[in-house]
Amino acid sequence: MATYLENTRKYFQSNNRVRESQAHSAKVHSVAWNCDGRRLASGSFDKTVNVFMLERDRLVKDLTFRGHGDSVDQLCWHPKHPDHLVTASGDKTVRIWDARTNKSVATVNTKGENINICWSPDGSTIAVGNKDDLITFIDIRSHRSKAEEQFKFEVNEISWNNEGDLFFLTSGQGSIHILSYPELKLQYSLTAHPANCICIEFDPVGKYFATGSADALVSLWDTSELVCVRTFSRLDWPVRTLSFSHDGCLLASASEDLVIDIAEVESGEKVTEIACESPTFTVAWHPKRYLLAFACDDKYEGHRGDERGSVKVFGIPSDP
């Protein structure tokens, strides 16, 4: 009987097309699917957010959110509400948007230039981190800050665990700091990498989380034991972005390498790879299907050497 690895490799041999959609006038920093998988959002250096509808394996641009005064560095959808989206920007604000009304629901002023953001699993709180390593926790009902935590080390990416009772951050020292939530008391500090620990991602199943580092390694961690179970070492450059598939079986990782690596989580074996023409900033698996959205550092030599920002989706069926 064929193994999962063999079956999945075979699947991607016949579902290996990449469909590209022109999205922005400058590079795309962040892409994310909403919880039902019908919409994909992209945030860009051009200060806008675009929302696409997924229709028969095609992305169709639905709306554009404008209002940020600086680059949109990261965005994420509400974990349970398919129309609500939050964005972090260098303009010192966090904005909450509603895709049904095409409007900004709230603008929350923060103390610095925001670079990372995440939503608590129950949808009640948004955490946002800025360039000065201050994490602000925003109550979604009042749109006000309910807690702040200043760190004395470089904070790169932040995330709750799937239960919402622990808060994780990756550091410039290569460690993972784990705080209790909502108390924000340090519980554990894990030495994850010898170099800058850049990104962190939890699998939807709750079994593992993964970190990506400047040492070009991806580490896979057991969430209950907090031990590293394996590393993935096929990339040569600092790992900037990670995403688990909806079933927790696949892990996509990307960097300045001109490939996106897709690995089987349980074995670490390569399932497939996606060739890219430039470094990849962001990857995101669809919440129900083997479709991977991603965005690269597109350089388009137009009449004036214009930059552009496109969003790509991998996993489209090949032509018969």
Task: Write up this protein.
With about 325 residues, this protein is mainly beta. The chain is built from 1 helix and 28 strands. Strands 1-28-27-26 form a 4-stranded antiparallel beta sheet, with no helix packed on it. It has a 4-stranded antiparallel beta sheet with strand order 2-3-4-5, with no helix packed on it. A 4-stranded antiparallel beta sheet has the order 6-7-8-9, with no helix packed on it. The radius of gyration is 19 Å and the shape is globular. About 0% of the residues have low confidence.
Q: Note the beta-strand portion.
A: over 45%
Distance between the first and last residues' Cα: 26 Å
Mean pLDDT: 94
Number of helices: 1
Q: How are the strands of the biggest sheet laid out side by side?
A: 1-28-27-26
| Biggest sheet features | 4 strands, antiparallel
Class computed from helices, strands and strand pairing = mainly beta
Number of strands: 28
Spans where pLDDT lies below 50 across 5 or more residues:
301-305
Share of helix, binned? under 10%
Taken from the alpha-carbon principal axes, the silhouette is: globular
Backbone CA Rg: 19 Å
Helix and strand succession? HEEEEEEEEEEEEEEEEEEEEEEEEEEEE
